[in-house]
């Protein structure tokens, strides 16, 4: 009910603000259109967590908004970055130079996001990063031209690693993807494990991507650690978990801790292989009535339940459009300031707000994968164990290295 | 405990065994490529996709038609191989007289089409194919726990490799085939239907890839992109072994599996590159490959 009241209040405020601005608004939209570019991996490893489904989510937001802002139509561009920083950066440069794109959405692989946000900063554009994990995107790589929406490696470590150590998993073996994201996650996890009284007894950095994990699993088995931490993502995580189950890791008394696991990964692996796995997520479709309602609409369009990234793309696009409407312009600087002023409270985010470093903080959740007996349907996969409040979940500003933060 | 280069004996033996399993797999895949290249001079870039089609056919056959693993191991190579026959008959044959590059481009394009189509329907996350009941659990080798299924993969892949080698190098049919590719006009004059032989050989190479795909289905998530990452490694194996050498592909496949396995212990960061380093060394000192014949 409070949710309804709040949204109602916001929309009244927004309507009031926009009716004041309406006479000048159209003139303030560049080209008389609001142009959004959707950049994501549409065909590779990260396709299923954002990809074409994320574009559908974005288009749903545009449609729900009424397909125009203050009379200016909303136009959506899209492109496949193929997980290449070069391709991503060049696409965005073209969008800004030739197509006058006002906002870039999607943004999945961390390496692509870091390259694209640099381009946005040089050209005074605006980007909302929804798919990437690296917490450095709003730390050492922060810019005044982007916002990081759904999650990052900090709460992943903070949520999952802490909970696992508290449950007695105090010796860890890290299986880390050998690139920026894996290193960042490994560092965040190491810190949390040691602070919680645990110990990292060993680890191995595997090339990205790796096809066969048997050798690494054997090394982890030999280490005697209670927990095998998976600091990797996508197909690598799926592969590692499959192999671990073949080698009887859990039967021999060791446990896996997946640090970045998406709904589509659990769906692909099946509950037999993943049951009991602890994970941290920014959103789950079956959290409450609002999330279920939106997820059902998405399901009707796409045929799969949405991941947290796809839901976040809807949420962030909606927030962006509201800010454009309220500000009466699509000028990046003004819109970003407007977005930061408005709190975020929708089917996706609870207690959401945008900090000066560009991090959208909101409540995160510690979840556990259900057992096949507990699950009542194909997509009934998680049980939410606890909420990590927004303020605690993310890296505190006092530890920030972001140039926008005065420390 | 006995140590080998700073690693406990048990760990070393374990990695050696796993390397051998992976090696048998590389051998099986590169064998198909070597057969196709050695006898037909087609650089089959669709090999990874055909391997993937094998795994998918097993998965879908089980899901929708209830075909079990053993039946799939027999049927899938036949079906995918027959599909290969059609490709050869209607597409590859038309460009057989042109430069190799055209065959490479054609097969590469086909691979992209197969992958793209399946990605469109199934996404990239992949699906699991259950390990057959009889292979559940593992063998305690003393120094390691080896999942029974991996042991079976080693046996099945090696048996298939030997069978292929025997067929091509030691039977009359194999002799016709080798003669036909050496001098097809002369063979035709002797009354051998060389074009048919070539079509069937391509089909057989594709069937080998599909067989490997079925073997892989319970090991790795079945996904449309599972073949593309493997293809490049397998090509490197073929180059090291000597383009077209059957025995070379088998021995090199096994050796590269072991080298890669040991790299994963001593310097894991290089595990994906070590095979290419070997390839560079081989190309520098013996450009025709370890088992290739000097032209």
UniProtKB/TrEMBL annotation, chain A:
It holds the Pfam family Peripla_BP_6. Residues 33-370 form the Leucine-binding protein domain. InterPro entries: BCAA_transport, Leu-bd, Peripla_BP_I. Keywords: Signal. CDD domains: PBP1_SBP-like. Residues 1-27 form the signal peptide. The keyword Transport does not apply. PANTHER family: LEUCINE-SPECIFIC-BINDING PROTEIN (PTHR30483), PERIPLASMIC BINDING PROTEIN OF ABC TRANSPORTER FOR NATURAL AMINO ACIDS (PTHR30483:SF6). Belongs to the leucine-binding protein family. This is ABC transporter permease. It comes from Vreelandella boliviensis LC1.
Automatic annotation (TrEMBL), chain B:
The keyword Transport applies. Signal peptide: none annotated. It is a multi-pass membrane protein. The chain crosses the membrane at residues 20-40, 47-65, 71-92, 104-129, 149-168, 189-217, 229-258, 270-289. InterPro entries: ABC_transp_permease, BCAA_transport_permease. Keywords: Amino-acid transport, Cell membrane, Membrane, Transmembrane, Transmembrane helix, Transport. The keyword tRNA processing does not apply. It is found in: Cell inner membrane. Its main location: membrane. Belongs to the binding-protein-dependent transport system permease family. LivHM subfamily. This is Branched-chain amino acid ABC transporter permease. It comes from Vreelandella boliviensis LC1.
């Amino acid at each position: 009910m409070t949710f309804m009241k709040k949204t109602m209040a916001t929309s009244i405020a927004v309507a009031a603000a926009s009716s004041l601005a309406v006479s000048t608004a159209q003139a303030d939209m560049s080209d008389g259109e609001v142009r959004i570019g959707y950049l994501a991996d549409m065909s590779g490893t990260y396709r299923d967590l954002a990809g074409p489904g994320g574009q559908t989510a974005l288009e749903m937001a545009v449609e729900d908004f009424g397909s125009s802002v203050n009379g200016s139509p909303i136009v959506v561009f899209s492109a496949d970055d193929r997980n290449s920083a070069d391709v991503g950066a060049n696409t965005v440069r073209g969008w800004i130079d030739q197509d006058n794109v006002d906002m870039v959405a999607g943004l999945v692989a961390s390496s692509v996001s870091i390259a694209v946000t640099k381009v946005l900063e040089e050209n005074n554009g605006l980007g909302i990063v929804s798919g990437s994990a690296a917490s450095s995107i709003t730390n050492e790589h922060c810019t005044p031209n982007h916002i990081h929406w759904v999650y990052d490696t900090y709460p992943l470590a903070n949520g999952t690693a802490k909970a696992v150590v508290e449950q007695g998993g105090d010796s860890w073996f890290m299986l880390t993807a050998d690139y920026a994201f894996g290193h960042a996650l490994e560092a965040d996890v190491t810190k949390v494990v040691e602070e919680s009284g645990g110990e990292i007894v060993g680890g191995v950095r595997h090339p990205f991507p790796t096809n066969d994990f048997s050798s690494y699993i054997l090394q982890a088995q030999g280490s005697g650690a209670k927990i095998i931490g998976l600091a990797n993502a996508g197909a690598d995580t799926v592969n590692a978990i499959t192999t671990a189950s073949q080698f009887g890791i859990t039967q021999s008394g060791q446990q896996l801790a997946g640090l970045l696991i998406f709904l589509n990964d659990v769906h692909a692996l099946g509950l037999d292989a993943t049951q009991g796995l602890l994970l941290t997520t920014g959103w789950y479709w079956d959290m409450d009535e609002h999330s279920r309602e939106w997820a059902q609409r998405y399901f009707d369009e796409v045929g799969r339940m949405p991941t947290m990234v796809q839901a976040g793309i809807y949420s962030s696009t909606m927030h962006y459009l509201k800010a454009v409407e309220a500000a009466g312009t699509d000028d990046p600087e003004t819109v970003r300031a407007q977005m930061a002023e408005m709190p975020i409270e929708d089917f996706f985010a609870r207690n959401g707000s945008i900090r000066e470093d560009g991090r959208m903080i909101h409540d995160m959740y510690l979840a556990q994968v259900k057992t096949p007996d507990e699950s009542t349907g194909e997509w009934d996969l998680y049980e939410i164990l606890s909420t990590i409040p927004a303020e605690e979940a993310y890296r505190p500003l006092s530890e920030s290295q972001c140039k926008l933060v005065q420390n | 405990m006995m140590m080998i280069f700073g690693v406990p004996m048990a760990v070393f033996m374990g990695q050696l065994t796993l390397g051998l399993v992976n090696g048998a797999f590389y051998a099986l895949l590169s064998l198909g490529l070597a057969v196709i290249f050695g006898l037909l001079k087609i650089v089959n870039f669709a090999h990874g996709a055909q391997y993937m089609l094998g795994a998918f056919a097993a998965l879908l056959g089980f899901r929708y038609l209830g075909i079990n693993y053993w039946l799939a191991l027999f049927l899938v190579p036949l079906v995918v191989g027959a599909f290969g026959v059609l490709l050869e008959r209607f597409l590859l044959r038309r460009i057989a007289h042109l430069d190799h590059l055209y065959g490479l481009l054609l097969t590469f394009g086909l691979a992209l089409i197969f992958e793209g189509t399946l990605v469109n329907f199934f996404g990239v996350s992949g699906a699991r194919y259950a390990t057959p009941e009889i292979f559940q659990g593992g063998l305690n080798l003393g120094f390691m726990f080896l999942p029974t299924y991996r042991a079976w993969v080693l046996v099945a892949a090696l048996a298939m490799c030997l069978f292929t080698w025997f067929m091509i190098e030691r039977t009359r049919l194999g002799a016709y085939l080798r003669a036909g590719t050496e001098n097809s006009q002369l063979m035709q004059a002797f009354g051998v239907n060389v074009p048919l032989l070539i079509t069937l050989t391509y089909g057989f190479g594709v069937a080998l890839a599909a067989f490997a795909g079925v073997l892989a289905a319970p090991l790795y998530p079945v996904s449309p992109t599972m073949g593309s990452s493997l293809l490049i490694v397998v090509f490197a194996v073929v180059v090291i072994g000597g383009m077209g050498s059957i025995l070379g592909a088998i021995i090199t496949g096994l050796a590269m599996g072991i080298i890669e396995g040991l790299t994963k212990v001593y310097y894991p960061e290089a595990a994906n590159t070590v095979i290419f380093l070997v390839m560079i060394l081989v190309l520098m000192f013996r450009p025709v490959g370890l088992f290739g014949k000097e032209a």
